[in-house]
Amino acid sequence: MTAQTTTNGNGEPSTKRPRIEGDNVKSHKMAYLGPPGTYGQMAAAAFQSCYDAPIELIPCPSISAIWETSATFHVLPLENTIHGGVTETLDCLLSNLNFSSHSSTSNLVREKKHRRIIADLALPISHVLVVRKGVKKEDIKWIRSHEQALGQSSKFIKTHYSTARLKTYPSTAGAAISLLNPTSSDLEEGEGAALCSKAAAKLYEDQLDVLYEGTQGISNNFTRFILLSSSSAISPPAPIRHVCSPSQTAFYTLPSAKEIIPFFQSSRIRNIHSRPSPISSDPIPQNGKTTQDVWVNREERFPTLYLVEVDIAIEGNDIDQTQSSIGEEKGWYLGKAEWRVTDEQITAL
Ligand SMILES: O=C(O)C(=O)C[C@]1(C(=O)O)C=C[C@@H](O)C=C1
């Protein structure tokens, strides 16, 4: 997107938001994890159903590709009941901390910094094990899926396919489709299976057989998806069919563990996700020491970034304001889940 300089009637710079390429496009874009049949697509459809404004769903080949895409909205899986935080999403959100603040940064970098979490939903997740038509249970030598689906089904896999090779794929539906176009190494390894949604299996029912349903083992398995809105681009429309979250939470990305407690002293921390910080090329200061073992702090050798979620719906409390302004200033604030798609809305889709 390219911002253009605008001027008012007096030739002075306009105070209005500059015109951005795409302003004339009628529909807003919502990027999600494709191809058709992913859980990400279901989440995107649920968020989309809350708006009256035209919103075009844009399938992306991976979670990182969603993050790299310039769109008004981004739909990302955040955490799962069984397998916990979605690492690729956490790495994307935390990468906001590493962006350079120099003015030479690209529009996309600036846009990523201005993305804010605005809503969430909990999608019920139930996987099926699919094979190419005619393949027998006992012939399966490998199982392919998104890392999350493999993790959520680990008990099932251990019980039924303890020797199967596990192959990760950027999405569950993509893994199912890959069975229809096996690579030469797939063929060398023998017959394979994929874990995907029932919806994906249905899309290819003439080519795929479902061997098991519910490989995650429990019925109350959910993945929480978040919706981000790019406030720096086209002004996002407002949702019209939604419920304000009864338990509103704000998200912050923090560069070290020591920031957590002082920053959130009087608020209720709901969740802390941590991920290794990308390796820096800067040499670690040795402070003149020459011995082999110079590390004192854990963070020296295990640099870690944190995504912290805190309660903001505490009555008579202005923590939100204070934290938000410090967070904004330091580039830590990532927005708040102010509204939610209800379970009833999701079921009705
Ligand atoms: O692969 C998909 O279908 C996705 O939408 C991704 C994803 C995830 O990243 O957690 C979403 C929900 C399920 O937990 C499994 C996979």
From TrEMBL:
One of the GO BP terms on file: L-phenylalanine biosynthetic process
Write out the biased-composition intervals (Basic and acidic residues).
Answer: 14-26
One annotated GO molecular function is: prephenate dehydratase activity
Q: In which pathway does it act?
A: Amino-acid biosynthesis
InterPro entries in UniProt: Preph_deHydtase
Q: Which Pfam families match?
A: PDT
Span list, region Disordered: 1-26
Q: Does the keyword Lyase apply?
A: yes
Segment forming the signal sequence: none
User: Has the keyword Lyase been applied to this entry?
Assistant: yes
Return the PANTHER family for the record: PREPHENATE DEHYDRATASE P PROTEIN, PREPHENATE DEHYDRATASE-RELATED
What name goes with this protein? Prephenate dehydratase domain-containing protein
Organism encoding this protein:
Kwoniella pini CBS 10737
